[in-house]
Amino acid sequence: MASEIATRALAAFPAGISNGEFGLPPDALMAIERGEGARLWDSAGREYLDFSMGWGSALVGHARPEVVAAVVRQAPLGANFAHLNTAVLELAEEIRRVSPAARRLRFCASGTEATMYCQRLARAVTGKARILKFEGAYHGANEAGVTSLFPARNLDFPEPELTSAGTPSAAHELLVAPWNDLASTAAILRAHAGTLAGVIMEPLQRCTPPVPGFLEGVRALCTELGLVLIWDEVVTGFRLAYGGAQEYYGVVPDLVAYGKALGGGYPIGAFGGRADIMEWVSEHRIGRDDYVWMASTLGGNPISATAARATLGVLRQPGTYEHLHGLGARFREMLRETLARRQAIAQVIGDGPLAQVVFSDRPVTDYRSTARADKARGRRLMLGLFARGVFINPMGTKLYLSLAHDQATCAAFCDRLDDTLAEIG
Ligand SMILES: Cc1ncc(COP(=O)(O)O)c(C=O)c1O
């Protein structure tokens, strides 16, 4: 029977969910009251180990004291002026210091907006309409983000499959290529260079790492064909390394989008790029053909900017990335050991503090190899873990670690995974 909270939530929200994507059955709906470190408590007082971490936004852990203190200092001084402020200026200077791509920046309030602006800029500067994305990639709730996101049909590349109703322009404005397949990507880019503005990619696509040479190959093709290369670093930024995927993989895009971990859990989005491209959003150009509209009421608000500066201060501390990578590698090993003990046929993928279990007998290198997996089993697993006090998103199987996780948290996860596997077979 649905709880009182679930009944109220189902009346207020479609599917009982306030912000989308969760997909919990009604009898499992609950409301979270508080988080600390890698733990959450719901309104009934039940404790959860958190392996979602605000979909990766709380990389420093929930209620990290340095971030809380910074927000508490700023709150009495005003929440939003919708104008340049010293907190956001200092934040921009720090991002410029570590992101070779972001020579100039602008702030918005989410990753979705950041990737949207990057695409608009690419279209504007090239005067062309189409963007190429990789199958299975998510770039936020805009058209490029939600098209061919989890396609059911294996359409011939580069034809897009609409994942969401209400996105008719995607059918004409998006092309889709297979992740990690440089030859096919090159053929599509060459064949459509005349109508393509740019390429958007997540350098570590969800949890599927790029094969050697793939990122460099796409970079070289974009340069050769005059296409704008957009990196969606909403997840990888400040997570794979302090300098994000640019530092980790040593490749520099033309435009870059940030969000999630940058804000330490507070709403933030940022995009940046080559100075000549970013100049298109300069308001001194309003009324001209070379002006791109950009405006965000909450972009760069001093609360989020202050939280972000404190977050970056935490991430800059010595040992941060050694911890995140060391723990992530150990966690993936522990997952493999647990799955093997239960004779579950599965792949464990990911890099840095990210992991994903895919019930497939074959290596996962792209969307179609993930799609072959037993997704119903994946969902049973996630719901079984949820019932055992592990908070994860049962729609997907992507697990986020944070600075608040340690080997004991990962071992507790694996114990509960073991019990769940025993139950679901
Ligand atoms: C790679 C990637 N890009 C963009 C986004 C969108 O960010 P937001 O939900 O802040 O709009 C997400 C969110 O999950 C993401 O994973």
The gist of it:
With 425 residues, this protein is α/β, with parallel strands linked by helices. Helix content is 39%, strand content 14%.
Lay out the secondary structure.
Blueprint (H helix, E strand, L loop, with lengths): L3 H9 L19 E5 L2 E4 L4 E4 L2 H4 L8 H10 L11 H13 L5 E5 L2 H16 L3 E5 L8 H4 L23 H4 E4 L4 H11 L3 E6 L12 H12 L2 E5 L11 H6 L5 E4 L10 E5 L1 H4 L23 H14 L4 H22 L5 E3 L4 E5 L8 H5 L3 H13 L2 E2 L6 E3 L6 H18 L1
Parallel strand pairs: 3-13, 5-6, 5-7, 7-8, 8-9
Antiparallel strand pairs: 1-2, 2-3, 4-10, 9-10, 11-12, 12-14
Helix pairs in contact: 3-12, 4-12, 8-9, 13-16, 15-16
Bound molecules: pyridoxal-5'-phosphate.
Please describe what this structure looks like.
The structure is a single chain. The chain is an alpha/beta fold and 425 residues long. It has 2 domains: 31-63 and 318-424, Alpha-Beta Complex (Aspartate Aminotransferase, domain 1); 65-315, Type I PLP-dependent aspartate aminotransferase-like (Major domain) (Aspartate Aminotransferase, domain 2), CATH 3.40.640.10. The chain is 39% helix and 14% strand. The strands form 3 sheets. A 7-stranded mixed β-sheet has the order 4-10-9-8-7-5-6, with helices on both faces. Strand 8, helix 10 and strand 9 form a beta-alpha-beta unit. The chain is globular, with a radius of gyration of 21 Å. The chain starts with a helix and ends with a helix. The structure holds pyridoxal-5'-phosphate (PLP).
